[in-house]
Design goal:
about 65% helix, mainly alpha, 434 Repressor (Amino-terminal Domain), about 100 residues, single chain
Length: about 100
């Protein structure tokens, strides 16, 4: 993802990082989480601060290491809508489609 696109989605990554940090703080250190998911402590810090994008498979690994469902680490759609207010339509649509959950049957 290019720098310009990251800038447009920065608030999303900050929100994801905050959710990861909140889930992690009650359970383990950044270093311990990094070891469990094969990342450095610096990468965990950067993900939690929203400075480093997290790949989907890594998000799943982090969720498993923390004992939470992956969707719990994604911001609520209302929060995303508010933070993406100034994001270009295409980027906003992509993010919203990735955080919306299918209706339960």
């Amino acid at each position: 993802m290019g720098r310009a696109r990251y800038q447009a989605n920065k608030e999303f990554y900050i929100a994801v990082g905050q959710r990861i940090a909140k889930a992690r703080q009650a359970r383990m250190t950044q270093d311990a989480l990094g070891q469990l998911v094969s990342l450095t402590r610096t990468s965990i810090i950067n993900i939690e601060k929203g400075r480093q994008q997290i790949l989907v498979h890594t998000l799943v690994d982090v969720a498993q290491a923390l004992g939470v469902a992956p969707e719990k680490l994604l911001p609520l759609q209302d929060d995303v809508n508010a933070s993406l207010r100034d994001t270009p339509k295409k980027g906003r649509e992509w993010i919203l489609s990735s955080v919306s959950t299918p209706p339960k049957k």
